[in-house]
Every structure is written in structure tokens, then in C-alpha cells.
């Protein structure tokens, strides 16, 4: 085996350490709560039953959403965003960046693109050799372009993006519920053990487990709460973590609220419009991950892809921009978009079957 291959295998193996750590903590918390607290410490049958029912409810929802966040494959750009063979060969032969950009502009004129690089160029990933759809970014950890990439999360050893963002939010929500429930129910026994009021359980190890259970649950509560509130704020603004760090650049300039459609529609973009599915880790996000409704759609929306060209762009600067709703976005309701969507769904069906620190992998686009 080549040394680079061995190195990559080692890296892939090591990347699972944070996930295994979380899994071990969760398994221990299950044992400590169910066996040491409910079975051996609590004497009241009614209290035992109520605690066990609510505990298992939050435990199942937490494990389900965590599982889906880890094992949902990140969605990648569809074939339409790859350069056709002839253009690709020409692109590789070209040495001048201007000529390469010209090839990209030509191919991009058939694609529904609103955003570009800070310098006004077409966003192209040399590594994946693909024109990046709006909100798509290359993740260096996964070594692929990920649709609506949010961040690469080491605690789930996966990229959080279009395909699993809802699962990630639910994972944060249910881990918070899980930790809050444990902390709230364990508190009274924590105090009793701490003040030596409860030492007749016959199991000296129960004290150790219950004391630690409270500390660990409280610690996770504080760290998850901050991350969860931040992501709820991002969902309300329809902004990814990457976009919060660096505003997307549209043909009218950079606009951090470019994808914001208003609070209710922003929520629906991630959770879908059917409230009964909001709390379940099943895929209900709107769209195909390749195109997104934008807040500001130029009056000449029909020619949106053409106006991306730098020359055409100069003429467009004087044209006023007016906010249009999703339904008025002519580009998105165009036949071409419908075809793209269908093709994408056929080619690339989404397998719809945390932490205090996150890493954000971003590529340079200037
Ligand atoms: Zn890429
Ligand atoms: Zn990644």
C-alpha cells in the first residue's frame, strides 16, 4: 500500500474518535440514569416509571437525530455543473486565468447561478472540477464540494449541509432536552448524596455515578445551549455558518441577507412547510440544494444567468433591484429549473431514508 493511502486510512480512523467519545458518554449516561439512579436509588415506583418513560423518549429522539446527522451523505453538485468534456479539455489547456474564466462564463450561462466570487468571477472548484452552485463550498476535510455547506463538524465526523442540516438542528435540540431532563431529575439526588442524606442505598458506586451524571449533564447543557441558539438564529436568517462569516456575493454586490425570505419562509426552507414533520429527523427541507430563492431578484430575472457576465454586469448596475417573493422568482419557476430539479433528483437522490467547538472549512474565493 502506498504511504499516502495508509496515511489517509489513519486520518479516517482518527476522525471517528470524537464520535466514539460521545457514544461512550451517552452509553454511560444511559447506564447511570437507568440502573444506578432509577433502579437502585429511587424507591418510589411512580417516580421511577415517569422518569424512565420521559428518559427513553428523549434518548430515542436524540440517538435517531444523531445517527441521521452522522450517516446522511453530504449532497454534491449534479452533473450539469461539471464542464462538458470539450470545455474541460480547453480549460485545462488554457494557462491564462482570463481565458479560463471565459470558458466558465460560457458554461455558466446555462446554469441557474446568482452568486460569484468576491472578484466577480464564476465560482469554480479546481479540486472537484465543477462549477459551484449557489451556497455550495468545497470541504477540505471531506475533499468534496458540499451543497449549502454549513460547516464540517468533527463531533459527527460529517459535513453539515443541505442534506442533513435539519438533522443537525434536531440533534442539538434533542441533546439539549436529554441533558436538561437528566440535570433536572438528578438534581435532588445530587443534593441528597452531596449532603450525605442518602447513603443507605447499599450501593456505594451509585453516589459516584449520580454526582458525575449531574456534572456532565450540566456541562453539556451550557455548551449545547450556546451552539443551538446560534443555529436557531441562523435558520431564522436563512444563513449558513460560512455565510455568517463571509456574506455571499451576488451580481448586485455582497449581501448577507441575500437568501433571507422572511422568518416563516426561512424556517420552512430547512424544516419544510408541514409542521407535523418538524420535530422528526426525516428529510423535509425545501428545494434541491442546487438553486435557492433569493431575496433580491433583479427586474431582469429571466436573463439572470446571462447578467452574471462581467460585461453585462456593468450595464446592470443602474437597474434598480426590487424584492420579489419566491413565487415571483421567474428563474426558479422556469422550465429549465424544473428540468434541472428533476434530473438532479433522478441522478442524485438524497438518502433521506455537537459540540462547543466546530471547525469551518472554507476555500479562498478572492
Ligand atoms: Zn470541490
Ligand atoms: Zn466536510
Can you put this structure into words, describing what you see?
With 366 residues, the protein is mainly alpha-helical. The protein has 2 domains: 14-74 and 167-224, no CATH class; 79-164 and 239-347, no CATH class. 51% of the residues lie in helices and 8% in strands. The protein contains 12 helices and 11 strands. The protein has helices at residues 3-14, 17-39, 45-71, 85-93, 97-108, 165-194, 204-237, 241-245, 263-271, 310-316, 330-333, 335-347, and strands spanning 115-116, 124-125, 130-131, 137-139, 144-146, 151-153, 158-160, 249-250, 253-254, 296-298, 321-323. It has a 3-stranded antiparallel β-sheet with strand order 1-8-9, with no helix packed on it. It has a two-stranded antiparallel sheet with strand order 2-3. Strands 4-5 form a two-stranded antiparallel sheet. Helix 2 crosses helix 7 (204-237) and helix 6 (165-194) runs antiparallel to helix 7 (204-237). The protein is elongated and about 80 Å long. It starts with a helix and ends in a 19-residue tail after the last helix. Residues 123-245 form the Palmitoyltransferase DHHC domain. Keywords: Acyltransferase, Membrane, Transferase, Transmembrane, Transmembrane helix. It is a multi-pass membrane protein. InterPro entries: Palmitoyltrfase_DHHC (IPR001594), PFA4/ZDH16/20/ERF2-like (IPR039859). One of its GO terms (molecular function) is protein-cysteine S-palmitoyltransferase activity.
Task: Summarize it.
This protein is 51% helix and 8% strand. It has helices at 3-14, 17-39, 45-71, 85-93, 97-108, 165-194, 204-237, 241-245, 263-271, 310-316, 330-333, 335-347; strands spanning 115-116, 124-125, 130-131, 137-139, 144-146, 151-153, 158-160, 249-250, 253-254, 296-298, 321-323. The strands form 5 sheets. A 3-stranded antiparallel β-sheet has the order 1-8-9, with no helix packed on it. The chain has a two-stranded antiparallel sheet with strand order 2-3. Strands 4-5 form a two-stranded antiparallel ribbon.
